[in-house]
Amino acid sequence: MDILKIEGYQGTNIYGDQAAKLTKHTQLAASKNQTNNDSTEESTSVELSERAQKIMQGAQVEPEIDLKKVANLKNAINNGNYKISAEDIANRMMAQVDMQKED
């Protein structure tokens, strides 16, 4: 059995991709608004839904890293004692799919 070596923090913020897309769309809308304002006196406003606002807030929060837990996991992996639960992995994957469907 091959053991993968984990180096450094590789965590991701689950809201990061969604927030990046939202930011991009908001910037595009603002850019179009500026272009429209240059040619006419009309203005366009952009309002974010409550869900979009939560995504933006979640993207700005960095997760706290438990260095002791990371060290324990590294040791367990290096010693071959780390047990992988296929059920936990499947549950987390399905939760991620469910979250993406809501978008």
From TrEMBL:
Compositionally biased tracts (Polar residues): 26-38
Location of the region described as Disordered in the Swiss-Prot/TrEMBL record: 26-46
Domain of life where this protein originates: Bacteria
Record-linked SUPFAM superfamilies: Anti-sigma factor FlgM (SSF101498)
Record domain Anti-sigma-28 factor FlgM C-terminal: where: 45-94
Keyword Chaperone: no
Keyword Repressor belongs to the record: yes
One protein family per Pfam: FlgM
Keywords: Bacterial flagellum biogenesis, Cell projection, Cilium, Flagellum, Repressor, Transcription, Transcription regulation
Biological processes, Gene Ontology terms: bacterial-type flagellum organization; negative regulation of DNA-templated transcription
Family: Belongs to the FlgM family.
Listed name of the protein: Negative regulator of flagellin synthesis
Species this chain originates from: Liquorilactobacillus mali KCTC 3596 = DSM 20444
